[in-house]
Design goal:
With 115 residues, this protein is α+β, with helices and mostly antiparallel strands. The protein has a single domain, classed as Winged helix-like DNA-binding domain superfamily/Winged helix DNA-binding domain (Arc Repressor Mutant, subunit A, Orthogonal Bundle). A three-stranded antiparallel sheet has the order 1-3-2. Strand 2 and strand 3 form a beta hairpin. Helix 3 packs across helix 6. The longest helix has 16 residues. The chain is globular, with a radius of gyration of 14 Å. The N and C termini lie far apart (39 Å).
Length: 115
């Protein structure tokens, strides 16, 4: 029951939903999420911790930055919830703006470094 509560807690914040929408396109560095969401590193990391504890993302450290990717669903409920999110999140106004900022950031970012 606690795992289910943690999983749902990960979805209980608009910022975390925005992060999941961005990560649906592939691995992103903390700096990428900071730019796309216009948030400080501490806030991005705190929200990513909720998503990681809920089993929504996995992370990998590369140098001084942490990179996140959507986790593969481990049960039918997570699979179903992810399908619903993928259907509904992309069309929301905040998500459209986030993707535009991310696209601009990735276009101007140096290939091997964040920030």
């Amino acid at each position: 029951m606690q795992q289910l509560a943690d999983r749902l807690k990960g979805l209980s914040d608009p910022t975390r939903l925005r992060m999941l929408a961005l990560l649906d396109n592939g691995e992103l560095c903390v700096c990428d999420l900071m730019e796309a969401l216009d948030l400080p590193q501490s806030k991005v990391s705190r929200h990513m911790s909720f998503l990681k504890n809920g089993g929504w993302v996995t992370s990998q450290r590369k140098g001084k930055w942490v990179y996140y990717v959507l986790a593969a669903p481990t049960d039918q409920l997570q699979f179903d919830l992810l399908a619903v999110l993928r259907e509904h999140l992309p069309g929301l106004a905040a998500g459209v703006e986030d993707r535009a900022r991310l696209k601009q950031h990735l276009k101007t970012k140096k290939a091997d470094a964040c920030g």
